[in-house]
Amino acid sequence: MNLFHNKNWHEKHSDTLGFGSRLADAVAKGMGSWRFIIIQTVFVIIWMGLNLVAFTYHWDAYPFILLNLVFSTQAAYAATIIMMSQNRQSERDRIQA
Question: pTM here?
């Protein structure tokens, strides 16, 4: 390890971020990935499949109102968190410029 390592601009900026900022960046990065899309697609297929084949007990019968509520809640939080991350990114770009 170099004791005289000078931090670049990105490392200095990263050091100033609080827990909430780091969490927002991690959530935005995760939700903007193919891995998230695939996992969510599999989840929806399983949810719908289990509800369609459950002849006696549908915890969320067609048209899947509970699933719709879950997605609406997820979208409300995701949009806000992603906007926080984007605002921080634009602020960082403005400072760097």
Answer: 0.66
